[in-house]
C-alpha cells in the first residue's frame, strides 16, 4: 500500500508542478477567443470607413531634431564656459565643490541628450 501511494505520488508530482504554468500561460482573452486582430475588428463599428493612420513626415522630424541639437550645443558651450570659470576660481586640487560636480553632471546629461538626438 505504501508503494502504491509512492508510485501514485511519483506519477502525479510532475503533473502538479507543470499544470499551473499551463493555465497561467493562457489569458482570458485567448480563452474567450477575443485576442489579436479579431478583437480589434470586432470593436470597430460596422458601416464606418476605416481611417488611415496619419503619415509621419520623417524630414520634418529630422529638421526638428537638427534645430534641437543646435540649441542644445549652444547651451552645452555656455555650460562648459561656466564650468571652466568655476574650476579656475576653485582650488580643485584640494576640494571639489558641489556646484562644480552639479555643473559637470548637467553637461554630461546634455551631451547624452545630443547624442540620442543625433543617432535618432
How does this model look, in words?
With about 120 residues, the protein is an all-alpha fold. It has two domains: about 1-45; about 60-120. It is built from five helices and no strands. The chain has helices spanning about 1-25, 30, 35-45, 60-90, 100-120. Helix 4 (about 60-90) packs antiparallel against helix 5 (about 100-120). The protein is flat and about 90 Å long. The N and C termini lie far apart (about 70 Å). The mean pLDDT is about 75.
Secondary structure elements and their pairing?
Layout (H helix, E strand, L loop, with lengths): L1 H24 L2 H5 L4 H7 L14 H32 L8 H22 L1
In short:
By secondary structure, this protein is an all-alpha fold.
The best one-word shape is flat
Helix and strand run: HHHHH
Q: Domains counted in the coordinates: how many?
A: 2
User: What's the end-to-end separation, in Å?
Assistant: 70 Å
Nearest-integer average pLDDT: 76
Q: Show unreliable segments.
A: none
Structural class: mainly alpha
- Computed over alpha carbons, the radius of gyration is 31 Å
| Most strands sheet | none
**DSSP summary, beta strand count:** 0
Number of helices: 5
* Fraction of helical residues: over 70%
Give the amount of beta strand, in percent: under 5%
